[in-house]
Amino acid sequence: MTTATPRPERINFAVARRCGVACRGCYSFFGKADPAPAPFLRSARVFAGAGIHTATLSGGDPLTLPDLHDWLLGLRAAGMHTIKLDTVGLGLLDSSNRAGLTPATLLAAVDQLAIPLDGWSNASAMLFRRGQADLHEQTLALLATLDARAAPRQLTVNTVVHAGNAGGLHRIAQAIEPLKNLLEWNLFQYTPTDQAKAGANADFALDARAYDDACDDLARRLGAPVLQGSGARINRRSIEGRLGHYLLVNSDGLAWLPDAQGRTLNLGPVFDRELDVLREWADAVSGIGVAA
Ligand code: SF4
Prior knowledge:
The chain is of the alpha/beta class and 292 residues long. The protein has a single domain, classed as TIM Barrel. The protein is 31% helix and 21% strand. The protein has nine helices and twelve strands. The chain has helices at residues 37-49, 68-77, 103-109, 122-125, 135-149, 169-176, 200-204, 208-222, 274-287, and strands at 10-14, 22-23, 54-58, 82-86, 112-116, 129-130, 155-161, 182-189, 233-237, 246-250, 254-258, 264-269. It has a ten-stranded mixed β-sheet with strand order 9-8-7-5-4-3-1-10-11-12. A two-stranded antiparallel sheet has the order 2-6. β11 (254-258) and β12 form a beta hairpin. The radius of gyration is 18 Å and the shape is globular. Bound molecules: iron/sulfur cluster.
């Protein structure tokens, strides 16, 4: 009997180099050059040919890509059947985003739209996400607007669970409870990374026990593993549990993945090396002790 080679569930094109928010614990491995879509879309076609049909577009904030719509159309044409976009969403309400998209045009181009919400007030949101004093209020307004236009189960909320907000997950739950078109609420255990700003890892890190306790406390308070309004799943995404699921590609076309210690494992250029990169990804995943 042969064992199948591990494959990433999805390719995360983390290509946007800019973001209107400045998180101290930002985990992105930013590239140096602004990306042109063509070589990435060629890579996407090769990955689709290798059987990977799910892609995420992220960054940074992809709403800072002036040609975002071309990226999304191109990923679809390349054979990506499921396209997710991760964005803080700033500039989407007033169409001031560089991509010139509205909530309706963006929702029409993606299968899943994921928005981060880490707090229950502007002050608690700013523990992690700096640079926008009213980010929490803006995000709630954005979520309400998106919810009114989204298809059923098209929205996702991502929360970074860290030492500063772990005791308030039920308050975040209250804030997103009214949403009707939520597919899932992901609770990401903060990963100390080598990309974070100085001191951030010490401030935000919480160990597996503290993370589990916070999730257990939330489940007890809610009495169910879902949100009542939408039926959205509440997903625990511990550091260990999400290792070896994604292959990331940054704006310079460098493929990478994080290891269990949050170190950046750089797999080198992806262009014209896609199948080699998949093999190196599988080796790296085996090396960090994960059965993908
Ligand atoms: S919103 Fe995301 S990309 Fe932007 S600074 Fe924060 S972690 Fe980094």
